[in-house]
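Protein details
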Amino acid sequence: MWRLTHDNSERGAVAPLTALLIVAMLGITAFAVDVATMYSEHSQLQNGADSAALAIAQACANDSSSAECTAPDTLAETMGNGNALDNATNIQNLVVDATAGTVDVTTQSRDTDGNNHFSLTFARALGIDTADIAASARASWGGPGAGASLPWTFSWCVFEQALSEVQLEDLLSTGDFTGDPSLTDVLIRYDTKALTTTCNGPTGHAVPGGFGWLKEDGTEPCSADVSTDDPEAGSAPGASISKDCKARLEALKTSPTLIPIFQETNGLEGANAEYTIYGFAAFQATGWKFPGAQWNITKAECGKDCLGIKGHFVRFVTLDEFTGTGPNLGGTTARLIG
């Protein structure tokens, strides 16, 4: 009987090739899984670094002599660990520069045994047991130089009355002051029958007292874009309060807001008036009387023809999107800058 035969030199090559492919696929799978967990770990570390830097900046803005500002290790560890799924983070680097008003934080992976690295799982099959993963953040604090504020401005004459002589001297010489402003309420009127007082502003020029309306030229409703670098702010005269601003009044009952303080005017009136902005102060409203909007103000305080806002200046740290630097009038910002 005749048999057909065919010699194949590649016979039996499928099995070893499959074995090689399986090893390669396992390696790729190990790489993919471990890379995914490394990305997750880095995200947690970045959140921890951001949170720690911002928390320390807030603490320094509130009180630069506090332990959370001068010795912030515990606060940094709390924020770092709190953002880690395994509640374990190493604070690799922590530097607070009170002069510059900045804080730098670097977080690093820490495993459950306390080793400062990230333990890999599948990559161990390839002889790679650990990875060094870290993340950094920088935050700053200080008096803001620019931002979108309520379209109001208060006179330097009003603000200086809330400071002691020592505080006022410190502010004019250093751009900052220690302690809190007076918590005594003041009524800042803007009606036509309000008595207008004057004082000498930071530049020595006479400044009219009171309250001014600014043009609502901000990107948000009821806001004005104000900057100490370009300090001339346009006026929007009138006794009315816009619909958008009425909607924002409720939030002012429970939280301070940053108000631009003007140090000069151009001497004109009406729509031609301009206010020269010195900085931003934090003001806690305790009452007001606007056309169609009144809260917590009596006739004895503000009678028939009276219009204005009542409250006091405070120290307050905001996370709103203010930028730049300006004098510290008690209203400060804490923000991530890197």
Q: What stands out?
A: The longest strand covers residues 274-290. The mean pLDDT is 89. The chain has two domains: 14-142, 146-336.
